Amino acid sequence: MLNIWILGLCLNLITGYFFEHSESFPPKVYTVEIKGMEFLPAQIKVKKGDTIVWINKDIVVHTVTEEKRKAWTSSLIPIGKSWKMVVKESSLYYCTLHPVMKGQIQVQ
Ligand SMILES: [Cu+2]
């Protein structure tokens, strides 16, 4: 009887958790390529807790920087290197070296 009660409690905790946090389980990893002075894809839809990896496949250095408050930044991503971040919220981002380069993260 106690076993069933504990099992029920566990299920409640688990389902409660997933209702409150609509995160991917397991979290997913998405890739954004930086190429030809563009983020590809420029718009990406993810869930909170997913990871995005930006890979610099361009011939110059770039950054990935939150646009409004500079809440986060990759700093310089050298050619051929990558930078990753666990997503917490929807953001617009850009490259501080080339402000015309813009991207968007949409948390669903
Ligand atoms: Cu750039």
UniProtKB/TrEMBL annotation:
Query: Where would I find the Blue (type 1) copper domain in this sequence?
Result: 31-108
Entry's Gene Ontology molecular function annotations: copper ion binding; electron transfer activity
Highest rank taxon of the organism: Bacteria
Pfam family for this entry, one: Copper-bind
Keywords of the record: Copper, Metal-binding
Protein name, entry field: Blue (type 1) copper domain-containing protein
Which source organism does the UniProt entry give? Adhaeribacter radiodurans
Q: What taxonomic classification does the UniProt entry list for its organism?
A: Bacteria, Pseudomonadati, Bacteroidota, Cytophagia, Cytophagales
